[in-house]
Each structure stands twice: as structure tokens, then as C-alpha cells.
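call fold(seq) -> C-alpha cells
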Amino acid sequence: MIRETLADHIAERIEFEVLPDPAGIDLEELFPAIRRFPQKELIEAGEHGLYDFVQQDSDVEVRFVNDRLRRDDRILFFFKFPPAFKVSLPRIIGNYNPDWGIVRRADDGKMTLELVRETKGDPDTAKLQFPSEGRKITSAEKHFATLGIDYRHITPETLDWAAPAPTKSTRLRGLK
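ret:
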């Protein structure tokens, strides 16, 4: 009980700082020209996928790819973050691996938007299977906001999935 309370406390209060040079990140290693998947749980990514196939970890992810990502003509490309990509968080919370990176044309057709989306079966982080998932999402919201990247926790049923995440004040008023 004390450990859970401490982890919640840290997740709610964690702050991030942008460092001048991200040391140790090798994009060619994270996103090779040819990607081999040891898992059998692969689905076709469609024309917007960075790779021909994308690994899926749940039915929630399959529905998001099929119902949202493959049908949106404004998507330039999308990918599932590789397991090696981690947001470093305190050990009591655990490191975080986001689900989806998406590059999409804005409504005016000119600008591209960089989006990171986390797909879960329930929009309420308190109802997720593991309490640590909610803490990681709370921490990730702050991490990506510090970087100026639009991050949002969604479900496959979220119709406005590409819209910016609601601000804290709109969430408090019950708007989504």
C-alpha cells in the first residue's frame, strides 16, 4: 500500500527537462530499413505503415490500426514504437514504451503533426488492468509535453483520436 501510494505521488509530480543532445539514441538501430519480427502477431500496416507489417499486442491495437490508421488519408506514415525505445522513469513506476508514432497532415494540408498515441481498452486510467499503466501514461503526458509532442491516451473507439489531447482544465470539467 505504501509503495503504491509513493508511486502515485511520484507520477503526479514528476517533471522533465529537455537536454541539448540526446546521447545514445541510434535511429538506424531503432528503425532499420528492414525489420524482422520474431512474433507471430503481425497485421498488415497498409499503405501508411512505415513497414509492411506491424506487431500487435492486443485486440485494441488491431482495431486501432484497422479502424483508424489504415483509413486516414492524411497520415503520411505510422509505426509502433520498438521495444528498445523507452522513456526512462523512476524504477518504482517502471520505464515506458509508447504504442504509436504518427505523422499526419494538418487540416490545412500543409503542416505535419507529430503524434504519439497510447491505445488502451478504457479511457479511464484508473480502470486499466495494472495500476502501473496509469502511472506510466500520466508520466508520459508530462514527458511528451516537455518535448512539444502531442501525446494522448485513447481507445479504438475515440473518433477524434488525432485531435490534441484535452488540457487539464478541460479534463477537470469532464470534456473529452
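The domain at 2-15+42-172 is CATH 3.40.1350 (Trna Endonuclease; Chain: A, domain 1).
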